[in-house]
Amino acid sequence: MIKIWSMKKNEDAATKKRPKTSAAQIRVQKDLTELDLPPTMKTNFPDPTDLLNFTLTITPDEGMYNGGAFTFSFTINTNYPHEPPKVKCMQTIYHPNVDLEGNVCLNILREDWKPVLNLNSVMVGLQYLFLEPNADDPLNKEAAEELRKNREQFLYNVKTSMRGGNIKGVTYHKVLV
Amino acid sequence: MATEINVNGAATSSDWQDRYYHVDQILDRPGPRTDPSFLAGDEVKDFLRNKCKILVIGAGGLGCEILANLALTGFKDIHLIDMDTIDISNLNRQFLFRPADVGRPKAIVAAEYVMKRVPGVQVTPYYGKIQDKGDDYYLQFNLVICGLDSVEARRWINATLVNLVDPENPESLKPLIDGGTEGFKGQARVILPTVSSCYECSLDMLNKPTTFPICTIANTPRLPEHCIEWASVLEWPRARGDEKLDTDDPEHIGWLYSIAVARAKEFKIEGVTWSLTQGVVKNVIPAIASTNAIIAASCCNEAFKIATSSAAYLNNYFMLIGTEGVYSYTFEHEKRDHCPVCGGEALEMPISRDWTVEQLIELLTEKQNIQIKKPSLATPGKPIYFQQPPQLEEATRPNLEKKVLELVPDGGEVVVTASTLPFSLSLIITYI
Ligand SMILES: [Zn+2]
């Protein structure tokens, strides 16, 4: 066998035993403890020792969704950050980029995810969806159509849905705070 | 009768004359490029054929090739791990398996086949996950070769081998040779844990699995893949609720397939098949037998050179790109200083038995050579003190007054993160 150990001796004393914490776990710790969230976003950990499952509540203070509280579940797997976190909206909401099952159309959650992105980028991206709903990437096609054609009616629908109202046969969750 | 072949007999009785004639040309005398520690002749041959224990991870496309190459170059004590059973779709390239083997564990069938074909070779199979095995298991090998298609499994074995390195024990450093292919592309690399760049160091270089924008899947499907993702990403949770999608369950794949076919019909898209469905949901990368052969051969040559010191080994990354003509190059991938697996170093931190967490944090912020602003601390299992987010800060605040000894055992690890640290710092806490 080649003598690797002698090569190692030449390196300055980088020979300490490394810890057992997984790379994913360290990365999640780093992401969470360096979160820099505005007062409009709040995380909640049902089990504070489980860093891989938590929720984020966004309470926009401007824009069409002002006055609502929107909660997303975050599930992080052991292949993070090679894979993005799984994020779902936990309420039925009226939004062009969120479908009735809570799937979210946000590019960095799927096709544009990169390991250099972090949980903060995802959370900021989610908040942006409430400030600037985007009719070009629709998941709720009717909502997107309404936003494009008739902004006044869309705004009215948003307000109705946030009160827990019914739009075209769908009853939305009351999200007003 | 010098040519008597004793199938599966002891190594000595099965070695017929000139069995290793060609390989011995390399092992019997030193050359201009051989390592100074190379001991030409019987000693190196004895090590390769009687002492060297090598672990092969994966018995798929690459694994079959690796196993055959190792056995034919003279490795005699080979261990093999694989968690899969043989599927009919494997038979086009995984040449150690035949139709009668479908459904049987790959590791066991591959071991049987190679032992039958190459006299004197002992292949010890393990049908299960690499994660089932602990440090003691991995410590018994001289070398590890991986032919895997999973990033997650590679990250695991890489971290395990890096963690295995014990400064008191030279034998604990196990060279890892990693091969991977994707269509006409492939790479082979040599990782000397803690010495050279590790798998995690190069994680950012990886191609990530192809994914499609969710709104395309939902609204404007154009490709058969879009229909399959519609079935797996959107329809599965809608129809099956919390039931976990098991990509190895034929009923689950069948369900997705039928949904995807209906979707494709609606949008007049052609090309949804059972195997494409399985391929998309399992993220199967197209495998070409000949690319596997090139990469497996490179890996095995490196294993041979490392085990025998008979020639300079790969330093450290070989890349093959066969998509536009043939292009290959070899370069030294640099170790990342702040690699979460091999980067930096663990800092030994001897502290008094009655120190509180708060005192430890103060030390970290004040100590000249560390000076970390607002550190957050955790053991491998759970948070000790987190600066953010507010709920976790509040939940861990009571720990500030606790003694470190109550939370961390002697010799235990604490992972420290802070925005002023590029990645993280590990402390090994000892009590004085
Ligand atoms: Zn590394």
TrEMBL record, chain A:
EC numbers for this chain: 2.3.2.34
Gene3D superfamilies registered for this protein in UniProt: Ubiquitin Conjugating Enzyme
Enzyme type, top EC level: transferase
InterPro entries assigned to the protein according to its UniProt record, in alphabetical order: Ub_conjugating_enzyme, UBC, UBQ-conjugating_AS, UBQ-conjugating_enzyme/RWD
Pathway info: Protein modification; protein neddylation
Reactions this protein catalyses: [E1 NEDD8-activating enzyme]-S-[NEDD8 protein]-yl-L-cysteine + [E2 NEDD8-conjugating enzyme]-L-cysteine = [E1 NEDD8-activating enzyme]-L-cysteine + [E2 NEDD8-conjugating enzyme]-S-[NEDD8-protein]-yl-L-cysteine
GO molecular function per UniProt: ATP binding; NEDD8 conjugating enzyme activity
Domain (UBC core): residue spans on this chain: 23-167
Domain of life according to the entry: Eukaryota
Keywords: ATP-binding, Nucleotide-binding, Transferase, Ubl conjugation pathway
Active site positions, chain numbering: 105
Family, similarity comment: Belongs to the ubiquitin-conjugating enzyme family.
Protein name: NEDD8-conjugating enzyme UBC12
UniProtKB/TrEMBL annotation, chain B:
E2 binding domain span: 349-432
Keyword annotations: ATP-binding, Ligase, Nucleotide-binding, Ubl conjugation pathway
CDD domains, alphabetized: Uba3_RUB
Positions of transmembrane segments: none
Entries under PROSITE patterns matching the protein: UBIQUITIN_ACTIVAT_2
Active site: 215
Family of this protein: Belongs to the ubiquitin-activating E1 family. UBA3 subfamily.
Cited function: Catalytic subunit of the dimeric E1 enzyme, which activates NEDD8.
Protein name as catalogued: NEDD8-activating enzyme E1 catalytic subunit
